[in-house]
């Protein structure tokens, strides 16, 4: 059976339940960065009269670190070995079960536990580097400090970029050009049939290119923008999803929905309907196809509109104490660059506000039922 979002969500629940109550993701991340920067600062304080050519050791060392990271990731992270069995369990066993291609963002800060290396690892990693610094400093103090400091910078860059690759799509950092490209490569790496063979680079794809393991697919148009909002409702999940998955109700709670052309009731996979909208300051017409409907669990539909607009809308319900949590995920994009530019400048923020308002209105409507 294929491993899918439902499997990943079930794994996430079990993994989160096993995290120690005293675990602090903020302390975890702060320690790694503070310790790494402190070590780099101490090493580089010893620099004296650095020759221009010696500065080239920084990029050269970062490339060397990338080679080492590639080898460890590929050889130990995705192959069972006696030496690397703990790393394999944590990486392929935990990380690749927690995140799949279609479910890459973390949802709470405590999820950093499965993204970041254990906090103690940077200390263990630094100890042989300090021994190497002591030995190399006998030959040249500048080269010793630049090399070992850059190796620590490589470690921290891995942690930071990898965390960015699991940010929510709507986060400002996710839209930076380099981060966006690496996020796409990393998402492809998390595809089950690709994860043992492609895209092992985390910070950049140089080693994948050199070793022939680089794989690229352009993201689906609707994935250009992703917005997710959630509310808790004191009603059973089946009742909540049954109401939300009936598009005829949308004009009652979503400010962008003007009119629905379709039958009443929750629509099933394979059914179609149309909608008049006014979203992001622009009027339009959408043609919808229902892709999935699992009562009490999820409902999904895709749509096309004017100006090359593509949308993917997903509703999900999770039972919680006293009711359920309703999650609405909207992914959309445009085929042409003029509309992409217009969306980035003006429309996206308005659509975000409209989506937030819709969730508040949905909660009020459901509370009155």
TrEMBL record:
Pfam families: FA_hydroxylase, Polyketide_cyc2. The chain crosses the membrane at residues 26-47, 53-72, 114-136. The keyword Transmembrane applies. CDD domains: SRPBCC. The keyword Repeat does not apply. Residues 60-213 form the Fatty acid hydroxylase domain. Keywords: Membrane, Transmembrane, Transmembrane helix. InterPro entries: Fatty_acid_hydroxylase, Polyketide_cyclase/dehydratase, START-like_dom_sf. This is SRPBCC family protein. It comes from Ectopseudomonas khazarica. The lineage of its organism: Bacteria, Pseudomonadati, Pseudomonadota, Gammaproteobacteria, Pseudomonadales.
